[in-house]
Amino acid sequence: MPTEAELREQFHHDDRPTGPGAIDLDAVLRRSRARRRPRVVAIAVVGSLAALALIVPISVSIALGQTGMFSASSGSAASAPDVKAPESLAGGAADGGVTGLAPAQKVNLCAGPLAELAPASNGLLLTVEPVEAAAADRGIPATVTLTNTGTTAFSGSASPFPALTFSRDGIVLWHSNGAVPSLAQVIDLAPGASLTFSTTFEPVVCGIADDERTTFRRDLPGAGAGSYGLSAVLEVTTADGSPVVVGGPVAAVTLR
């Protein structure tokens, strides 16, 4: 496994630089792929949502730092009044309102191979809309949709914060990170029904050492113009309390 020093060496001293401090992503991806063995993540993640502190209706809309916003698509569930997150969640009080990295954020790690999730047996599928943006942009908006593709209704709860992964050629360049509030949204999806999440991602390149921190460094190098991928995973709990992680295909990201 490469150290941070080795990763920096790859970023700044590749044999095909394009300028001072330039990153040759192709070289980085080749080396990361060679040094990391592929991982297959099982769809069930035991205990990831068992201790959620608060359950609220799915029509809630929340905006908290890097975790983005959640909103239910029309017709996907019964409407309910908006509910604001308790102040302790944003303030980081020691009452358990804020957790560390969610299991969904640990599915994909910096410089590692993009995890392969088995299809959800309950028919849930998470998709991301394709994105086009400027390479210099930060906090790029992304739309994530949870759809019940099965033939039976699904009842349970879900985290309001899908974890995004920005990648290239199957190697993780960035993923959602930072503390997340202990919240869950009650969901009841008929066959074909869906929920929409609005969130953001960063087109930057993180290193192995960044996953050892509470949050990533603010000066991560930009990925630059090119073609990339964006995927999402979401923690869901079934009506009987079984936690699962739902994923889906990788969407195209074009940075100009």
Question: Brief overview, please?
Answer:
The chain has 256 residues and is mainly beta. The protein has helices at 4-12, 25-35, 87-91; strands at residues 40-41, 54-57, 69-71, 98-99, 116-117, 124-128, 131-133, 140-148, 154-158, 163-168, 171-175, 180-181, 183-189, 194-201, 226-238, 243-246, 251-255.
Describe this structure in words.
This protein is mostly beta strands. The chain has a single domain, classed as Sandwich (Immunoglobulin-like). The protein contains three helices and 17 strands. The strands form four sheets. Strands 2, 7, 9, 10, 11, 13, 15, 16 and 17 form a nine-stranded mixed sheet that branches. The longest helix has 11 residues. The protein starts with a helix and ends with a strand. The relative contact order is 0.24.
Using the coordinates above, name the CATH class. Answer: Mainly Beta
User: Roughly how many Å apart are the termini?
Assistant: 32 Å
**Mean pLDDT figure:** 73
Q: Uncertain segments of ≥5 residues (pLDDT<50)?
A: 11-17, 37-101
- Identify the CATH homologous superfamily: Intracellular proteinase inhibitor BsuPI
Tell me the number of strands.
Answer: 17
Task: Quickly count the helices.
Answer: 3
